[in-house]
Every structure is written in structure tokens, then in C-alpha cells.
Amino acid sequence: MKVIRNYLYNAGYQVLAIIVPLITSPYISRVLHASGVGDNAYTNSIIQYFVMFAALGVGYYGNREIAYVRENRQKMSETFWEIQILKTLTTLGAYLAFVIFVQIYTDYSWYLWVQSINVIAVAFDISWLFMGLEDFKRTVIRNTIVKISSLICIFAFVRDANDVALYIFIVGASTLFGNLILWPYLKGILVPVKWRSLHPLKHFNPTVSLFIPQVATSVYLQLNKTMLGAMIGADYSGFYYNADQIVKMVLTLATSLGTVMLPHMASAFAKGDHKRVNEMLYTSFDFISLLSVAMSFGLAAVSLHLGPYFFGKGFGPVGPAMLIESVVILLIAWSNTVGAQYLLPTNKVKAFTTSVVLGAIVNAIANLPFIYFWGLNGAMYATVLSELVVTGYQLWYVRKLVSMKKLFTNVYKYLFAGIVMFIPVFLIDNAVKTSVISLALEVILGIVIYVVMILILRPTSLLQVKEMIGGRLKGNK
Predict the structure, then answer these.
(1) Where, by residue number, does the polypeptide cross the bilayer (predicted)?
(2) Residue 243 structural domain
């Protein structure tokens, strides 16, 4: 029941994380225009490399290590401070590298300096501690405060195309503020430690092993925007950013389960309960497939007109880009389940690293010709191809460790239901004039068709849902 509660906490926040951009993105795209959105996307893609070096893989590693030792408060406290000291040092190193970089690369220097708040914020991010403890309530409250405060500030202060730097500052400062909120809670969680007994550098090699896949992941998450900005223009970085933003907003509802399951599975693995780990993977993969197939086909059905309507005049290329990228919802949902929920908790870091490195290599190789010949859509094709490689390798690797039959037992039913849903919604979307009402009705129609098809096809996940609901109701009595 704890997993369900944490998922509901996390999913509830993800709904908010979807709603806030749904409110702010149309406003920002209309106020800052394509050029302003592009400048933000391009400079943010650059600063994320420094953010990545500052974080050094601590998000996954810290989460897992705290989950391993959380039964021992003394050991947990020592582990926390060792990892936090290491992250503070890497943040200082990353910021020094940034200062040197802006002396050499002088374009967009003012925007880059403002973006650097995101690097500073990394040093104060201790959300990994609470995730390792499976205490998602506090992180959800923190994230909710950040989202709402940034929403208020954006509408209050960002008024015209000259406010790009102000918008960047608000987003970065709200992240920093949100990270600081969690620190007062440490008093009730940690116990005093002997500082001389701490050995932060012993965590360096393990974090680097998780940093390598983070670098690789960053390549195919940020390189597309960077190369689009360099090869075609910053506006196209903005188009990519907007399309990717909508896709990732939808995706978060599925991947939020991965955040919840990682410490839970790590704890089970630490206790030697390998059978339990595999069973949790089957259940999680099936549930993720049920959601992500619906999201992928649903977004694809309305994407052509949703993008330009949502972001406004001048954002026409966003629609086709979203249609192409919608398939990654399913691919990333699967790789997140296998990678973050199985490979990392069971300490199979090498396999996880190999998968994302292969994805990064494919993305780097494909980007240049794809962008050259097909522009923005080419960048999306490269993204889909790289995610296909990541997911494909991870599934190939676990084929002898888990039952692939159990893993994919219901997937063909979900895919069939998704196709049946896609066809009428896509046809209607292209036949009627786009409006808030038409989009809402299309979404409702898609949900109804998908649910009806699932009830007709009767996948085994229906029984699991009934059991969860039944257990929840009994627990409340």
C-alpha cells in the first residue's frame, strides 16, 4: 500500500506539473515569441551540461544508497553527508568550468549567466534523500510550492519580449528556492555524525559509474536543441523544446511510478528478495504499458493541430514534430521501467550505462544528416531512433533474467486498443476546427474508446487493479 500511496502522491504532483505548463506555455510563447522561447531553449540546453556535471549521478546513486541503509539512522546520516559533501565539491567545479566557458563563448552570455542559477541549485538539492526513504509527501509539497510560486511570478512580472532574462531567472530561482525548502526537515531525520570519520571521496567512483549514463542521456536530450540552434537557428531549438515539453508532460504520469519503485525495489534487493523484485517488475511494466500506450496514441491523434493552437501563431512546425515524437512516450516508459526500476536497484549499472551510451552514439551520428536533410523533424527522428536503441538493448539484456512472456503478456492488447482509439480521433481532429472544446471532446472520446476496448479485451491488469482497489478499501475500514 505504501507504493500505491507514494505513486498517488507523485502522480498527483505530476498532474500539477502538467497543468502549470499548460497554463504558462501558451502565455510565454505569445509574450516572448518564437525568438525568445528559442533563446531560452538554446541557452538552457547549454547550461544543462554544467548542471549534469554538478549533479554527477547523485540523483540515482543517492536514492539507491539511502534505500540500502535506511534501517540504520547512523549509517544513513553518514552516507547522506558523504554524498552531499561530494556533490557540493562537484558543483563548485562545474560552476568554475562554466565561468571559464563564458569567457570563451561570448554569444548569449547574459542569458547564460542567468541560467547558471540552475547550476548553483544543484548543490542544495537533497530530494534524493527523501526518495531513498520513500518519503514522497515532502518532495511533492516542495515541488508544488515551486510550481505555484513560479506560475504566479511569471504572470506577474513577464510582460513582453524583453523579459526573456527575467523569465529565465524566475524559473531558476524557483528551483533553488524549492531545494532550500527541504533542508529544515533534516533535523528530524538525521543524527549527529563525526565529521572526521566521513569519507566522501569513496562515493566518487560509484557516482561516476552512474554519471556516464547521465552524460549519455544528456547528449540525446540536449544535443538536438543545441545542434538545431547552431545549424538552423535558435527558433528551431524553441520549436523542438515546445514539442518535447508537451510529450514529456504527458510522459511524466507514467514515469512517476519509476521514481516511486526505485527505492522500494532497492530495499527488496538489499534484503535478498530477488523473486519479489522480478514480480514487482512484471506488475510495474504491465501498468506502465497500459498507461503509456494510451498516452502515446492519444497524443499522436491530436498533435498536428494541438501544437500550433496551444503555442499560437508562428509555432506551426511544433505539430508535426509532436506527432513524430509521440512514440517515445511508450519507449521511454519501457526503458524507465527496466532501467530505473530494475537495472539500477539491482546494481546492474554497466548494462544501464551501455544502453544509454549506445543511444547517445546513435543520436550523435544521426543528428547531423537528419537535421541537415529534414530540419526539426529530422531531430525528432533521431530522438525516436536513439530511444528505440536504449529500450531495445535493455530488453535484450534482461531477456535471460526475467520472463519476457510475463513482461509483455498484455502489451498486444494495449496496442490494439490504442490503434482502435487513434483512428477515429485522428480523423475527427483533422476534420473539425481546432478549439478548446473540440480538443476536450477528442480527449474524452479517446479515453472512452480505449477504456471500452480494454474492458472487451480483458487484460490480466484488470484483476490487479481490482485487487489494489479492494485492498485500499479494506485498509480504510
Answers:
(1) 7-29, 41-62, 83-104, 110-133, 164-183, 246-266, 287-311, 323-344, 356-374, 380-399, 411-428, 434-457
(2) 2-409
Its sign, for the CA torsion 364, 399, 2, 184, is negative
Within-domain flag for 191: yes
Tell me the C-alpha to C-alpha distance, in Å, between residue 156 and each of 28, 143, 163, 453: 12, 20, 12, 45
Residue 450 belongs to a domain: no
CA neighbours closer than 13 Å in the CB half-sphere of residue 369? 3
| Residue 393 amino acid letter | Y
Q: 164-181 and 136-157 helices cross at what angle (nearest 10)?
A: 160
What is the C-alpha separation between 146 and 409, in angstroms, rounded? Answer: 40
Could you say which DSSP state residue 72 is in? -
State the pLDDT at residue 466: 61
- Which region among 38-52, 199-213, 287-301, 460-474 has the lowest average model confidence (pLDDT)? 460-474
Structural contact between residues 215 and 353, judged by C-beta atoms closer than 8 angstroms: no
C-alpha R_g of the chain: 22
Sign of CA dihedral 108, 114, 120, 122: negative
Maximum distance among all alpha carbons in the chain?
70
Q: Indicate the SS3 state at residue 56.
A: coil
Per the domain annotation, does 435 fall within a domain? no
pLDDT in tens, 283-294: 889 888 998 999
Q: Are 119 and 155 in contact (CB under 8 A)?
A: no
In-domain check, residue 193: yes
Q: How many structural domains comprise the chain? A: 1
Between residues 259 and 141, the one the model is more confident about: 141
Cα(154)–Cα(292) distance, rounded to whole angstroms?
A: 31
User: Is-contact 269 347, C-beta < 8 A?
Assistant: yes
- What gap in Å lies between CA 234 and CA 178, rounded to an integer? 29
CA–CA dist 52, 226 (Å, integer): 15
